[in-house]
Design a protein that fits this description.
The structure is a single chain. The chain contains 8 helices and no strands. The relative contact order is 0.07.
Length: 117
């Protein structure tokens, strides 16, 4: 596929798929934020690098490896940030998100059920 094919394929998509999720927010900025969050939450450097597909400098990858507990820590801290972000949404924002990503509605129903019990 050449550049012209990519441009045609991109312009054929609906506008909401072509534009940024947040004005001025790029994919690369999202990666920086992701890595910063992992650092704030105490995820080891080797696990942060692996999560983003980076290589450790020097001998780092030779002597240090991602362990199952490190992988669990990554999942746990990111899931907690996800939960907090969903809870911070206003009702109208939640509805828009659930329309765009229907499985989010399943999460909210499960969350409400847990709170009620």
């Amino acid at each position: 596929m050449d550049a012209e094919d990519c441009t045609a394929a991109t312009s054929a998509r609906p506008a909401w798929l072509r534009g940024p999720v947040l004005p001025g927010f790029t994919f690369n900025e999202g990666r920086h934020t992701h890595r910063t969050w992992l650092s704030e939450d105490g995820v080891p450097e080797v696990a942060r690098a692996a999560r983003l597909g980076h290589r450790m400098p020097g001998m780092g990858e030779v002597y240090e490896h991602v362990t199952p507990p490190m992988k669990k820590k990554v999942r746990d801290v990111l899931e907690e940030r996800w939960r907090q972000s969903l809870q911070a949404l206003q009702p109208g924002e939640r509805e828009r998100l659930m329309e765009t990503v229907p499985r989010v509605g399943e999460y909210y129903r499960a969350l409400d059920t847990r709170r009620a019990s």
